[in-house]
UniProtKB/TrEMBL annotation:
PANTHER family: TRNA-URIDINE AMINOCARBOXYPROPYLTRANSFERASE 2 (PTHR21392:SF0)
GO terms for biological process, alphabetical: tRNA processing
Pfam families documented for this protein: DTW (PF03942)
Protein's name according to its UniProt entry: tRNA-uridine aminocarboxypropyltransferase
Signal peptide: none
Family: Belongs to the TDD superfamily. DTWD2 family.
Length: 198
């Protein structure tokens, strides 16, 4: 028998995060392109980001046929939040007269690269990166490298850079509750044995 699911946050009703999800305005528009394999992931942080930001949209797929219109909303300059040799630091866009459309692929690094490969228009966007040295609070996953953040953490850091002094930290509340809940479910001893710093 399956558990009743919250239709908004997609968590089991007994672990609904909706009361923790903020309602934040941003000048920056955030477009999250989520690989289908992430939709049912227990820690779907892209969904949490999209729910907490009024100026955000989450689209699930591998090939996005309506990409030309999605990438050209009036009054915004589209930039892809993804590392690359020619990626500009986000600080280069502060201050800016024209707000950014921040396009964020969501999936494992491999799946995110696949989204770029399958959508040449996406891969052709100018790329932006976060400041180095970001430390993830994602204690359940070993980061593939320094500065590797979950999707919601990357969005928070990007918005904090672009829209300082406005704080987007409230977006991390449901994310942190999600992690605490997962740790509680597995038990502190199992968490320490498998995930705590060695």
């Amino acid at each position: 028998m399956s558990r009743i699911q919250c239709p908004r946050c997609l968590r089991p009703q007994s672990h609904c995060l909706c009361t923790l999800i903020p309602n934040l305005d941003s000048r920056t528009r955030v477009l999250l392109l989520q690989h289908p394999s992430e939709v049912n992931h227990a820690l779907n942080t892209a969904r949490l980001a999209a729910l907490g930001l009024n100026n955000a949209e989450l689209i699930v797929g591998e090939v996005f046929d309506d990409l030309p219109s999605l990438l050209n909303p009036p009054g915004y300059r589209a930039r892809l939040l993804f590392p690359g040799d020619d990626a500009q630091p986000l600080q280069a866009y502060v201050p800016s007269d024209e707000p950014l459309l921040l396009v964020v692929p969501d999936g494992t690094w491999r799946k995110a690269r696949k989204l770029l490969h399958l959508n040449p228009l996406l891969a052709a966007l100018p790329r932006v990166t976060l400041a180095e040295g970001g430390v993830s609070r994602y204690r359940l996953r070993k980061a593939p490298g320094p500065g590797a953040l979950s999707t919601v953490e990357a969005i928070v850091q990007a918005l904090q850079t672009l829209e300082a002094p406005t704080s987007f930290e409230p977006l991390l509340r449901p994310f942190e509750a999600l992690i605490e809940g997962q740790i509680a479910a597995m038990g502190e001893e199992t968490f320490r044995r498998n995930h705590a710093e060695k």
